[in-house]
Specification:
716 residues; alpha/beta; Rossmann fold; 4 domains; eight-stranded parallel sheet; 46% helix
Length: 716
């Protein structure tokens, strides 16, 4: 499910008030640790919320913070809840997963939350509920000296000076409050100094101005965390944009290479025959531009019916349906966010088409941000600004795409601000799309940020394997071509996080098949897409040959006694006996051994002289004397990579792939395995996976087999 939030909702499972959501970040080995260290610097009070979804199962955790210190923790997965230390441990484990989202919430009633969840407190109540210390009265000369020091640093000290003639206790209390405020202000200033504020200069300057009066802005820590979130989001998005530029260039290069492949093969296979031209092949690759309605700018083929729905877009799709059926009643505005090529624009058009077709009197208008800006400039130049405004502000549903480009259009901000207000006040539906949250758009007017985020924000995530296959099946039906499911699965495994690129790969295969007169099978798909990788990078397309290609055979029978450092092995067996034999033999030549297994380590050690330094039991079970590890992929990667740094040679045995798939997803486990394969290939370690072949689907098993040396153990 995509990430979403609304300013006044309540988290669904643990039912804590959302307060103000000021920062979100992805999980990772040190994500939660670094976040807590940052918050401790300025005694942050609020809570961190973790949300992790794996195989349709959702887990939510809460860590309540007071003064920057964890005070209580709650955790819920399915219908089971944990509280206190056990909850904190599970939140920490979930945070290792990059698919986990960590949210920072502020402006909540901490005293009320701790009272309500007293059984979740991390220490005994007697230690937590302490009597407030009465500050010892200070000498007036010391107070005046302190005031002068604060004034010299540029702080506003009028609140303390106003109490100079007050009772000693009141004066002392105001000094103590000022001291705490200055401490927080100095911590915030230190954080600001370490941030790259490019694009957010005005927000940073505003924060620095507020630091002068520490007592007048008690939520300054909340604001700086919000700024940090915006900067981090921008960094990630710009990095993703650079990847997209490279991918687009690679896609064009792959198209050119496939064209050369067609031309050469036609010459080699049919000498003297009329060759296809480049124009013919380009035409076969290109799709006809979609038809648009002139009045609304809507692409008529982009409907809810033509959209493939899966876990990655289900929430955003549901929100879009609700808006289309009841404009300005459910969510207004609706903001759809995601990386490129995941369906934001399709959803906007689907909403508009539904409203236009079900309410003939409704006026609908779709525009890109660029079109809005250029139209405004032309209207000003031609003196037709009033009619331009009437065209936009007179609609019942306004759909604005690519609002991230407002970053470079400051002259548009004012006009859009009043357009938004007019439409919203008139109860007209507004739908927006962006590749990032509004607060992460550099130099965007803060008034627009608050308005854009005032409704529902619905995120789209990259589609999982079943959804990618469903998209290709839809493409095949629309193109009226017959393609075996094995071929579709092969293509779906190559392109994982961009639907447009997935469609491009499909188009190249179909066009090549049509031009060469060859049936679409996996051999053709491999030949055409051999330069496509799941991570978006390209490889060289091999030279064509008139002989059928033969795959390199990497499968051997059991009994081979040698493993090679830097290689990874998939041992297909009903029980992990052969894997343990190879593991023990390899370590006979020296090195460290790590075993991660679904079997209780007591049973693993029985009857075996196991040379492993560590045996981790892969389980959610708690309370065992054995060392356990939860099925968190990032946590497992961290343990393996950390283990490999401690000795230059060794072996890692993993038994429990099917368990990891059931707790995460095959896509996530495949990325996890490939990351480990890359790490092993540059080391003197051997990596062994023991797998019961019947525990995975045929296509999933084939994908793993393509990446590893396979050894099959005949069933007894």
């Amino acid at each position: 499910m995509g990430r979403y939030h609304r300013g006044n909702v309540t988290p669904q499972d643990l039912l804590l008030p959302e307060g103000k959501l000021i920062r979100t970040t992805r999980g990772g080995p040190n994500a939660l640790k670094q976040l807590l260290l940052d918050l401790k610097k300025y005694s942050f009070s609020g809570y961190v919320r973790s949300v992790r979804t794996a195989s349709g199962r959702r887990a939510e955790g809460i860590v309540l913070l007071r003064g920057g210190n964890p005070e209580a923790s709650l955790y819920q997965r399915d219908d089971a809840q944990d509280r206190g230390r056990s909850a904190l441990k599970k939140v920490w484990q979930d945070s290792y997963d990059e698919a986990c989202v960590l949210e920072l919430h502020a402006r909540v009633d901490m005293d009320g939350l701790v009272r309500e969840h007293a059984d979740a407190v991390l220490e005994r109540p007697a230690k937590v509920v302490k009597k407030a210390k009465i500050p010892q009265a200070m000498e007036r000369v010391d107070i005046e000296k302190q005031i002068r020091a604060w004034r010299a640093k540029g702080y506003d000290v009028t609140s303390v000076e106003a109490n100079l003639q007050a009772d000693a206790a009141v004066l002392t209390a105001s000094v103590v409050a000022m001291r705490e405020g200055v401490k927080k202000a100095e911590a915030v200033a230190e954080i600001l100094a370490g941030l790259d504020i490019t694009g957010f200069e005005s927000r940073a300057a505003s924060l620095r101005e507020r630091l002068v009066d520490p007592l007048g802005h008690p939520d300054i820590d909340t604001e700086v965390e919000s700024l940090r979130d915006a900067i981090e989001s921008l960094r990630q998005i710009e990095a993703r944009r650079q990847v997209e530029v490279v991918r687009e260039r690679d896609s064009q290069e792959r198209t050119r290479q496939v064209l050369e492949l067609v031309m050469r093969q036609q010459q080699a296979l049919r000498p003297g025959a009329t060759l296809s031209t480049r124009e013919e092949f380009a035409k076969a690759l290109e799709e006809a531009p979609p038809a648009r309605d002139e009045a609304t700018n809507l692409v008529q083929s982009f409907t809810f019916e033509s959209l493939v729905v899966g876990e990655s877009n289900r929430f955003a799709h549901g929100a879009a349906i609700a808006v289309a059926k009841q404009p300005a009643k459910s969510y207004n505005p609706l903001l759809v966010t995601s990386g490129p090529g995941l369906g934001k624009t399709h959803l906007l058009h689907a909403i508009g088409n539904y409203i236009a077709s079900h309410s003939r009197d409704s006026k609908v208008l779709y525009m890109t941000c660029e079109a809005f800006g250029s139209g405004l400039a032309v209207a000003k130049e031609q003196g037709s600004l009033a009619s331009y405004r009437q065209r936009i502000r007179g609609v019942d549903c306004f759909l604005l795409d690519d609002i991230q480009f407002l970053s470079g259009m400051p002259e548009v901000h004012e006009e859009l601000f009043y357009t938004f207000n007019d439409l919203h006040d008139a109860e007209k539906q507004i739908v927006l799309a962006s590749d990032r949250p509004p607060k992460a758009i550099p130099n965007l007017d803060e008034r627009l940020v608050s308005r854009f985020e005032s409704g529902l924000v619905a995120g789209l995530e990259p589609p999982e394997l079943p959804m990618r296959i469903a998209i290709l099946e839809r493409r095949a039906r629309d193109a009226k071509v017959s393609i075996d499911s094995d071929v579709l699965t092969y293509i779906a495994n190559l392109v994982q996080d961009n639907v447009r690129e997935l469609s491009g790969a499909f188009n190249r295969v179909v066009a090549f098949s049509s031009m060469m007169g060859r049936p679409i099978n996996e051999e053709v798909a491999r030949e055409v897409l051999s330069g496509v990788r799941a991570d978006g990078r390209s490889e060289t397309v091999p030279e064509p040959t008139t002989e059928p290609r033969v795959e390199r055979e990497r499968t051997s029978s059991a009994g081979s006694n040698e493993l090679t450092p830097g290689r990874s092995y998939l041992i297909e067996e009903e029980r992990p006996a052969e894997a343990f034999r190879l593991f023990a033999q390899f370590l006979g030549g020296g090195g460290s051994g790590l075993v991660i297994t679904r079997t209780n380590p007591k049973r693993v050690r029985q009857g075996r002289d196991l040379p492993a330094e560590r045996v981790l039991w892969l389980t959610d079970h708690e309370g065992s004397e054995e060392e356990t590890i939860a099925p968190s992929l990032e946590r497992i990667v961290y343990e393996i990579e950390d283990f490999m740094t401690k000795q230059p040679r060794g072996a890692v045995l993993l038994d429990g792939i099917e368990y990891l798939v059931s707790n995460n997803s095959f896509d996530a486990v495949l990325k996890f395995v490939r990351r480990l394969l890359d790490a092993i290939s540059e080391s003197r370690y051997a990596f062994i996976i023991s797998l019961g072949p019947a525990t995975l689907g045929d296509q999933e098993l084939k994908v793993l087999e393509r990446d590893m040396d396979v050894r099959r153990v005949p069933s007894s």
